[in-house]
Predict the structure.
Amino acid sequence: MSVLVEVCIDSIGSLKVAERAGADRIELCSALRLGGLTASCGYMQLAVQQANIPIYAIIRPREGDFLYSSDEAEVMLKDIAMARQAGCAGVVIGALTAQGQLDLPLIDDMLAEAKGMGVTFHRAFDHCADPESALEALLARPAIERVLTSGQASSAEQGKEALKHWVEMTRQAALQIMPGAGVTPDNAAAILSHCGAREIHLSARMGQPSAMQHRAVATMGEGDDACYPMTNPAIIRQIKALSAHL
């Protein structure tokens, strides 16, 4: 059985590139430079219309930590409803307390709003103070299909020992451990072989030069106006080829 390859994207242009290159599932985001934020309604709708593979929309209202106010929680619940209306196959969620524990009341509210949809728990897991207890709590919630994690390290390669342990913890459960962060064609096979995961997550980004002929002096935010992120199909193809033999 080959490994499922999930690609996170932050533009509609990247969707077609990722799917044609062999992505099995899409994590739909905006602003990947900020770790991924919730996509707009129009972006969700068009992605679902154009895709032939499952679209999971990240539900993250802002950059930074995963400690959310009551207003932010309300935004997240409304965004889950929007993702459902757009036809997304699933959502990607996460929330923590100030002490680094899972915010279970908010998580349960989000699961209730997402009932009938697929659910991934995102890398808020990597910010948990006690990942073992957090994983047990997620295992007790069957609606959660997988946990996206780097093994609480800067990259999945560095966190491969923890990833292996958590894969073993969930071996008899439906919950999947999906390594992500810093995944490349050079390390994907080693990560998967070491930890035994059956899904892997990557962004496969490259810089796409702007087609603008006029160059303004003014800049927009902290980004590079002369270049924007785009999915690199070669990276996806390489990882798909590697994962097919694991």
User: Anything to note?
Assistant: The first helix runs from residue 12 to 21. The beta strands are 4-9, 25-28, 55-58, 90-93, 118-121, 146-149, 176-179, 199-202, 205-209, 227-231. The chain has a mean pLDDT of 94. The CA atoms of residues 121 and 147 lie 5 Å apart.
